[in-house]
Structure formats: C-alpha cells, structure tokens
C-alpha cells in the first residue's frame, strides 16, 4: 500500500475525511518554508499538496500567484523545492506529499528527470494541472515508472468518457474541483457533485478529494457530506502563511479547526 492508500484506510476506520493543506514551496523563503511544512503536518494535516514557484500558474488565483512571485523573487528553484521535500520526508515518513505543477516546469527539466528527482525526494504524487486527459499518457507512464501516483482532475462537467479514462489512469486520489475558475477564497464552492462522485465510484477511481474555495470548517463538512473523501485548502492556508510568518500560530489553529471538521463522516 502506498501512503495515500494507508491514509484513506486509517481515516475510514476512524470515520474521518482527509484534510489536505496546500502551500507554495519557498514562500516566504526556504528556511521558513521548511518550518511551515512541519507546522502543517504537526497541526493535523493528513496530506500535503505543494506548488513549485512558476511564472504562469494558470489554475491559481491571486493569492497563490503572489506566493509564487515572492518565491521566484528570492530565486527559489525546482532543485530547492525537491530539497525541501526530501527534508520533509525524512522528518515525516508517513504523511503523503504531492506536487501540483505545470507542464512547462516538468518539460524544462525533462519529464524523466523531473519525476526521478521527485521520487528521490519522497514525493507521493504529481498533478500536472494544465495537461488534459487526452495528452496525459506520457506523464502517467513516467509517473508509474517512478512509483509516483499521477493525480488527475475531474469536474462536474467532465464528459463520461473522459471520467472513465481518469478513473483508469489516476492513482492516489482524484482531484475534484469545487467550482469553475481558479483557486481562491473569493468565490464560493458549488456543491452539485453527486453525479460526479457516483460516476468515479462506478469506474473505480481513486478517492475524490475536493479543492478550490475550501476555506472554512463548514466547507469541509459540506464537502464530506456530499460524498468527498477529503478536501484540500490552498489559498486560505497561503494567506495565513503570508500574514503570520513568525509564530505560525494562526496557521496551526486553522489546520486544527479544519481537521476537526473531518470527524465522524457519514460517507466513510
């Protein structure tokens, strides 16, 4: 069993959903980024999703874009990010950690080299956000060669035939978007995912995890009640990291509150 399988099995036994936290690696700097990763894990995040700073993150809203810009201005590189992840893995051997990135970053390094570096750093999954399912096969195959889960995106308007392909090719978890648009807390999530979750289950897809606009414990409860196996909160966490750079107290408190909302899920 990989770390995602173990995590979902453990949470199902406790009737809990998964809470995932997203941060941008290298924001505000490499040293603090390592502290932030530890704080998220120690405060109760079941899984981490991280970004590598990139100049054109088309799926990300203004908060995460600003975090990427701050890291880029400090000269943070993909190699630095793999170093951060390797250190995190040494300190937290059980928590799944995945990368959300873009095709240009992967291809600039070389697809084989990128996935090899990720595997050496202890990365569990890679989601390449701007690669559609019809073009995903080379990324999926390279991920499999390095024992990395290829995480794929599904939405309420994804055609049935595409959902079948996503279900067969995806591993770890299925990233389900809570609404149209980009990441951020400015627009409310739109929960009409019953048919999507049902279709993914029928096709044997990895567990559905809801992202985009997840920023309150009420959002967590609503997502789990709708049938999600977990949630990922990004912009809300990144905002707190930016505002609370020194003590991280607000970030820790937020993670604890969001994780607490995953308990006793009726769909577990």
Automatic annotation (TrEMBL):
Give the pathway annotation: Amino-acid biosynthesis; L-tryptophan biosynthesis; L-tryptophan from chorismate: step 5/5
EC numbers, comma separated: 4.2.1.20
| SUPFAM superfamilies, A to Z | Ribulose-phoshate binding barrel (SSF51366)
Reaction(s) this enzyme catalyzes, per UniProt: (1S,2R)-1-C-(indol-3-yl)glycerol 3-phosphate + L-serine = D-glyceraldehyde 3-phosphate + L-tryptophan + H2O
Catalytic-site annotation from UniProt: 49, 60
Say what the protein does.
The alpha subunit is responsible for the aldol cleavage of indoleglycerol phosphate to indole and glyceraldehyde 3-phosphate.
Q: What is this protein called?
A: Tryptophan synthase alpha chain
């Amino acid at each position: 069993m990989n770390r995602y399988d173990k995590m979902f099995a453990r949470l199902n036994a406790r009737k809990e959903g998964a809470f995932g936290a997203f941060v941008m690696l290298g924001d505000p700097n490499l040293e603090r980024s390592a502290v932030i990763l530890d704080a998220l894990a120690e405060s109760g995040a079941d899984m981490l999703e991280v970004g590598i700073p990139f100049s054109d993150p088309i799926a990300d809203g203004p908060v995460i874009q600003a975090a990427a810009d701050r890291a880029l201005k400090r000269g943070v590189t993909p190699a630095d990010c793999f170093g951060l992840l390797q250190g995190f893995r040494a300190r937290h051997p059980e928590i799944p950690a995945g990368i959300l990135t873009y095709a240009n970053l992967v291809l600039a390094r070389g697809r084989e080299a990128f996935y090899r570096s990720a595997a050496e750093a202890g990365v569990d999954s890679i989601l390449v956000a701007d690669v559609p399912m019809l073009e995903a096969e080379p990324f999926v195959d390279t991920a499999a060669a390095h024992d990395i889960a290829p995480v794929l995106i599904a939405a309420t308007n994804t055609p049935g035939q595409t959902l079948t392909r996503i279900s067969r090719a995806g591993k770890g978890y299925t990233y389900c978007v809570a609404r149209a648009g980009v990441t951020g807390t400015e627009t409310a999530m739109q929960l009409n995912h019953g048919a999507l979750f049902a279709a993914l289950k029928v096709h044997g897809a990895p567990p559905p995890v809801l992202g985009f606009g997840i920023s309150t414990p009420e959002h967590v409860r609503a997502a789990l009640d709708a049938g999600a196996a977990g949630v990922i909160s990004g912009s809300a966490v990144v905002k707190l990291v930016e505002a609370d750079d020194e003590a991280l107290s607000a970030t820790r408190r937020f993670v604890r509150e969001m994780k607490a909302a995953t308990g006793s899920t009726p769909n577990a």
